[in-house]
Amino acid sequence: MQKDPWRGKRRTRAGARVNALFLAPLPLAVRAFFRPPGALALMLGGLGLLLLAAWLTREGILAQEAYEARKVARRPAFPRKIFASVLTGAGLLAAVVASGGSMTNAAIFALLGAVLHGLAFGPDPLRDKGMDGIDTFQQDRVARAVDEAEKHLAAMHAAIARAGDRKLEARVERFEATARDMFRTVEDDPRDLTSARRYLGVYLLGARDATIRFADLYARSRDAGARADYEAFLDDLEANFATRTRTLLLDERNDMNVEIEVLRERLEREGVHMRTLLKTEGNT
User: Fold this and answer.
1) CA-CA distance, 142 to 129, in Å (whole number)?
2) pTM for the full predicted model
3) Beta-carbon count within 10 A of 134 CB
4) What does the pLDDT look like over 249-259, one tens digit per residue?
C-alpha cells in the first residue's frame, strides 16, 4: 500500500500574509532619500527593523509548524514571533518619527502595530509538548537524530527537484512520508532509537547521496535505465523503512502487553491478600 505524501500535512501558514510583511515597508526605501540625513538614517533603520520582523515572523511560523507536526517536542528556544511583534512596533515608531510625526502619534502607531502583529500571527509555543514522564536526555538524543534525518530528506527533495520530473518528485515524497512514520514512532518511544539509528543516519545519508547523483545524471541525459534503477532503489528502501517501523510498533505492543500482564499479576496477588485479610477480620 502506497503512502499518501500529503497525509497529515497542512498548507503552510508562511504564505501570502508573511510575504506582504516584506513588501509593505519597501516604499520607505524610496521616501527615505527625500528626507534630511538624520531622518534618512532613521527611516532606513525603521525599514531594516520591519524587514527583520518579517523574517522572524516567517521563521517563527515554520518553527511552530514543525512543533505542531510532532507529538513530542520542545518549545522553540527563541520566541521569534513575539520578538517580531516588538520589532514591528519599533520599526513603525522610527518610520513615523522620521516622517515628521510627533512622539505621541509614533507611540500610538507602534503600539497598534505590535498588537495587531501579535493578533494576526499569534504567540510562539511557550511550553514543551508531550514531555511529561519522558527521560529528557533520551528525548534530546531522539530530537537530534530526527533533525539530522529531516535534513537528509530535505536534501533529497531539493536534489530530485533539479531533475525536473514531477512524477519522480512525487515518488520521493511518498518515501518521505514512510520515513516520517518511523520518525514519529521513535519520538513516541525514545527506546526505539537504538534499533532505528541506522535508518535515520546511514541509510538516509546513502539515499541522499544516491538521489543527488541520480538527479545530476538524469537532468543531463534523461537516462531511462538510470531512472528505473533509482525507482527500484526507492521501492526497496521504502519497503525496508516500512518493515522496520512495523517491527518497532510490534515491539512496543509486546512491551505494553508484558506491562499489563505484570500489573494484572500484582493486582491479583493484592486481591488475594485483601480477601485473606477481610476473611480474617470477619472471623474475629
Assistant:
1) 15
2) 0.59
3) 16
4) 775 565 555 45
